[in-house]
TrEMBL record:
Biased composition (Polar residues): 216-230
Name of the protein in question: Cilia and flagella associated protein 99
Organism this protein belongs to: Macaca nemestrina
Residues covered by region (Disordered): 213-235, 627-655, 685-704
Keywords recorded for this protein, A-Z: Coiled coil
Keyword Cell membrane among UniProt keywords: no
Record InterPro entries: CFAP99
The keyword Coiled coil appears for this protein: yes
Coiled-coil ranges per UniProt: 367-394
Amino acid sequence: MAYYGKCIETVIEKLDKFTPKRDNPEQFLEAVALSLQALSPQTQSFVLEVLSGCLEYRKLLTIVVDAFYVEDGRLCLLVDRSRFMVICYLATFLLEELGFQLFCNIIKSQPVDKMCKFLRFFFNPLHLCSWIKDEWSLIYEPAHVKENWLDPLMRWQPKVQELINHLEGMSASQSSPLKTKAKVTEPKEFNLTAPRPRTIPAPELVPVMAKPRPVPQSTYQPPKEQQQLETVKRHNRRKAEELLLRANIEELRCAMPRSCGEPVQVPHQKVPPNIIAVTTYVPDNVPVKLNATAILREGALYQRQVEQELQRVDKLVDGAGDFSEFLEWQKKMQAKDREEQLAASECRRLQGKLSHEEAVLARQSLMQENKQRVEQQKEQMAKLMLQHAETRLREDRSRKQLVEQVIEGQKNVKAAQTKLTKGRRQTVQEVIEESRGLLRRRAQAAQEEQRRRCELISQLRALETQPTRKGKLVDLTQTPGYGLEGEMSIVELRERLALLKENQRRKEEEKRDQIIQGKRTKSQELQNTVEQISLCRAAMGRSAALRWEEKKALAAAPEAPSQDERVQQLRRRISERAAERSRQAALLHVSAPRAAGPKPRVSPGWWEEPGRLKAGAGWGWRARRAGTGVEEGGMAGRSAPGRSQERAREAVGGVPARADAFSDLQTQLEAQHWLELERSRERRLQALQQGGSGPGPARRLEAA
């Protein structure tokens, strides 16, 4: 028995050294064979055969051992993992070859308790026929697993059960005398110091509540800020209504550009005394304070300009050519570019006018197309309604068939429910039995854990009773004597640190003096640069004033009107489109009285009426140029010309007369509108020509 125990221990030792990710099984077996040359040939063959089998069927053995550790072997050590794998291999693959008697000797040579647990788990018929069979069938063929491995195990199961019972009896006989000799731990009371008697605390003082203040009267009154806000709201609303009325009566100032010298007229209004007026300050031409970087950058710029001017003078002295001819050519080209820009702007204006005419024609054609599209959609809608009715009939038939099928299926529900209830009851019984076993094992584990904790507590108390040294004397003037380079005492270290701090402070003072001297030098250089920049700016201002006078003289000269071919062609196209639009409008107005039934008091071309839609959609300046009124949100009233026109419309009776009156009025308003727009654009172009050489973008924005 001892011989087989040594063989199994050798196999377990070699199997523990094997690492699947790092070692190759063939090379590992060769190394093991070399290390076992001192043993007998019979022992070598047995050890190598068992070891090679464990490596070959490692996946099958791992499944069984992992499940054992999860269920019955939770209290077993992981060190015995290789032992369980070897026993599992012997029982599965070598039990027929070894014989049951030799297998019993091998089992008895191992720890009895561990072998009982593992054999009871592995030879359980429920485990062999259920999950072990399923897991092994995933790796090998199910027929091979059942025929070669599971059937032999089921045949040997009764004898193995007798072996398990025999081993349990042996373990009970060995453990019974030990239990009689065990001494029960007798707990002793702790020798604790008696606590001092508690002192009776003094009674707490009863707090005296302060007299509450009465509720102020302002709580029940509305705040003054709300009244002030209401006053401000009323003032702002009245001011907005006045501005809206003025905008409806007068024309917009952006359409009537003023000359460059004309001052801006701001209407004065009376503000109530309780309204805080916001003052707008106009900034003066205050010089901007520059930082050091800006001063140096501008000084370098002027210095480069002076050097370039000196180089140019030197070249002229040496006999280089002048740029007067180039400047004259440049002026001619600039004048030509200016003429082309004016012609291009005129072309863009005429193209916009042409696109307006074409849009009116397209709108009229779109009305006809919309009517045809509406008729087509009505026909399509009727067809879709017929198709929808047919679909509803088919869906009703399918629903009736589905209801009949559901009624037939409900008849078989009761039989299925009874069968399901029986299966659930059986499952509940199995779960209850498993939970009882788990509770039993958990109680045993808790007892073992409690025993281990008691042992640890006794060891900790024994360590606490040992005396310890708490204090240690330190001499600050003594060198530790560790043999290190530069070793010194704490007092010497403090002196050295004080000397280092003194040297560092002296260096900081010297550095501070150097920085102050550098700042003074830099400030002097910046002052000299600022003086040079002021001189250069004065010179550049004088030269800019001379250039401005020259440009003003050039702009004052009258220019001939543009004779570009594109402009002439666009004007001809616009006149043709206007004539065509007037003809179509006349045809529409003539055909309007033929419609049957009364019509509302709206012109057929209401979308083209200058005072209605265009005013609401952002085109109100055209209506105001034409003299018509605009009604916005019910806040402001209409102008006098607008009210007179409405009275004229109400006084006229009959649809044909009203249509003719609208057509005449529309023609007059369109003509007046385009005339005013043409004059406004001419004034704008003249203002651009006069202000094109202005001092900056402010003059160009004012002219626009």
